[in-house]
């Protein structure tokens, strides 16, 4: 469930563009911040406009542009995209409007 | 009741009120089970020589519930005789010695429920998006489970 290097997923190309052009189309996603990331960002949730096709690392970089202090925890976070864990790396995400993207610092439940 | 009416159930709750061992164990009791195994996670009053005043928990609630459901599904695959599973986790402020998590599992014989409870807490610590903040006298610290593969092990 949590193995690194999850398989690449490619979704359908956006209408009127080839798969390689899908990156310029933007969509609005809900970004959720938890624990230390909420302290660094200064908020718990917001809507951001990001490219629909984007790697998880590129998505992180988009979010750090908005909240530079998040760079402090770059080595210790993963994402949850549509409630599935995603490492920061070259996994290609195909985002839908309204998708939840959560910043997940190291967990400590139990 | 007939055993076919005692359908296996998962009881998952994240709440800010005090947890109850009685309540959680009663949820999983079954006339077809000879064993109820429990794990209770409580708050300690010290960490590395610092006095812990209390703990605070927060969660990505919808995903935490989904991840706990996955754990229950895994338990049932590994230990098919398990009857009921209850996982209650507290959110918000948890005073010292109070329970932050209670896990209860029932099964006809004890081996399965004992193993399933251990699997539940170990996997919860590795995969459920819940965070704990330890509040000390002069500072606080976000904890990181060693089971969490994206935590830095060296600090």
From TrEMBL, chain A:
GO cellular component: molybdopterin adenylyltransferase complex
Keywords: Cytoplasm, Molybdenum cofactor biosynthesis, Nucleotide-binding, Phosphoprotein
Pathway: Cofactor biosynthesis; molybdopterin biosynthesis
GO aspect biological process, one term: Mo-molybdopterin cofactor biosynthetic process
Region annotation (Disordered) ranges: 1-22
A Pfam family reported for this protein in Swiss-Prot or TrEMBL: ThiS
MF annotations from Gene Ontology: nucleotide binding
Stretches of the chain forming a coiled coil according to its record: none
InterPro entries reported for this sequence: Beta-grasp_dom_sf, MOCS2A, MOCS2A_euk, Mopterin_synth/thiamin_S_b, ThiS/MoaD-like
Keyword Cell cycle applies: no
NCBIfam families: moaD
HAMAP family, sorted: MOCS2A
This protein's name: MOC2A synthase
Organism: Chloropsis hardwickii
From TrEMBL, chain B:
UniProt GO molecular function: molybdopterin synthase activity
Protein name listed in UniProt: MOC2B synthase
A GO-annotated cellular component: molybdopterin synthase complex
Entry keyword annotation includes Cytoplasm: yes
Ribosomal protein as UniProt keyword: no
Key words, A-Z: Cytoplasm, Molybdenum cofactor biosynthesis, Transferase
Gene3D superfamilies to which the protein is assigned, alphabetical: Molybdopterin biosynthesis MoaE subunit
GO process terms (BP): Mo-molybdopterin cofactor biosynthetic process
Pfam families registered for this protein in UniProt: MoaE
Gene responsible for this protein: Mocs2_0
Coiled coil: none
């Amino acid at each position: 469930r949590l193995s690194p290097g999850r398989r690449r997923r490619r979704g359908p190309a956006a209408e009127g563009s080839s798969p390689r052009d899908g990156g310029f189309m933007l969509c609005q996603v809900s970004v959720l911040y938890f624990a230390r990331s909420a302290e660094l960002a200064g908020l718990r949730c917001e809507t951001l406009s990001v490219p629909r096709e984007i790697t998880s690392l590129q998505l992180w970089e988009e979010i750090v542009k908005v909240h530079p202090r998040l760079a402090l925890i770059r080595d210790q976070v993963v994402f949850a995209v549509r409630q599935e864990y995603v490492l920061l790396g070259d996994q290609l995400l195909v985002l839908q409007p309204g998708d939840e993207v959560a910043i997940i610092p190291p967990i400590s439940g139990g | 009741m007939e055993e076919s009416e005692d359908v296996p159930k998962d009881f998952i709750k994240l709440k800010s009120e005090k947890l109850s061992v009685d309540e959680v164990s009663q949820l999983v009791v079954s006339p077809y089970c000879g064993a109820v195994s429990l794990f209770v996670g409580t708050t300690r009053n010290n960490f590395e020589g610092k006095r812990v005043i209390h703990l605070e928990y927060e969660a990505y609630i919808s995903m935490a519930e989904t991840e706990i459901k996955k754990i229950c599904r895994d338990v049932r695959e590994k230990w098919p005789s398990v009857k009921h599973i209850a996982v209650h986790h507290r959110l918000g402020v948890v005073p010292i010695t109070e329970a932050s998590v209670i896990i209860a599992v029932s099964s006809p014989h004890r081996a399965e429920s004992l193993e399933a409870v251990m699997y539940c807490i170990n996997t919860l610590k590795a995969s459920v998006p819940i965070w704990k903040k330890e509040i000390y006298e002069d500072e606080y610290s976000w904890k990181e489970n060693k089971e969490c593969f994206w935590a830095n092990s060296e600090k």
